[in-house]
Amino acid sequence: MKIKVIACEALTREIRLASARSPHVIDIEYLAFGLHNTPDDLRKTIQEKIDASEGQGYDCIVLGYGLCSRGTANIQARSIPIVIPRAHDCITFFLGSRARYDEEFSTHPGTYYYSPGWIERKEGDVQQGLIEDVQARAYEDKYREYVEKYGEDNAKFLIEQEQQWYQHYTRAAFINMDLGDVAAYRKFTQDLANDRGWEYSEIQGDVSLLQRLANGDWADDAFLKIEPGQKITESFDPKVLKAE
Q1: What does the CA dihedral 81, 1, 26, 64 come to, rounded to 10 degrees?
Q2: Domains of the chain, residue spans
């Protein structure tokens, strides 16, 4: 079977590993991590990549995405079937199953998860791979932009409001996939937890779901397969996604 994989660059290491072990011929195209910030752009870009895969001899297109803030909702299959994991986001991929995802989120609410790919690719640049906390620099750039547009007082207010997102979190968890520079990823997450006053935790990752995705082992409800003429929609139930 010849498979085209379209995936978020946050999955770069894991997808490459799973593809290397797969019996199938796999071509991979990674999309910028930053597309998650604008789900409409994510959807548009994925659809463009799917459409560009027509006539290339692929038996199936595999998406290395979950629902991702509805960024994959309404993605359509043209002449090639599409397979996507039934997942809200990539944390399910790193934990290996929806069941483990649900258990982790219910047992440890208020956790922000960090994977190797998230740490390396968080600026949305597939080439950069730097391990540093870019949050401060991003806010400095945004602050200057707001000052120019709205004035200094309004800029300070807007930045304060945007920074409140992390006040709901109390724990930083590094998902150890046993890939890449584990010591550097661990230190990054520990330093970030210390800076924000969060608890630090380390979780053993599991690549088995992505391995099944690459192997074509799509028989159970861990995956959604849509046929030509169908589209991906949100199911609003534990299965997350459905075909329409």
Answers
A1: 30
A2: 2-92+207-243, 98-204
Q: Report the b/e string of 174-195 with b at 16+ CB within 10 A.
A: bbbbebbeeeebbebbeebbee
Cα gap 7→20, rounded to integer Å? 15
Per-residue pLDDT, 126: 37
The band of 180, judged by pLDDT with boundaries at 50, 70 and 90, is: very high
> Tell me, which fold does domain 2-92+207-243 have in CATH?
Rossmann fold (3.40.50)
The Cβ-side half-sphere exposure at 65, using a 13 Å CA radius, reads 31
CB of 230 within 8 A of CB of 244?
yes
What pLDDT, in 10s, does the model give residues 158-167? 766 666 556 6
Helices (H) and strands (E) in the chain, counts: 9, 10
* Of residues 85, 94, 110, 126, the one with CA closest to residue 170: 110
Measure the CA angle with vertex 18, ends 184 and 100; round to 5°. 75
Q: Are 241 and 98 in contact (CB under 8 A)?
A: no
- Give the number of other Cβ atoms within 10 Å of residue 98's Cβ: 20
CA dihedral 58, 36, 171, 15 (to 10 degrees): 20
Work out the angle at residue 54's Cα, subtended by the Cα atoms of residues 51 and 60, and round it to the nearest 5 degrees: 100
Comparing 33-42, 94-103, 144-153, 187-196, which segment has the lowest mean pLDDT?
144-153
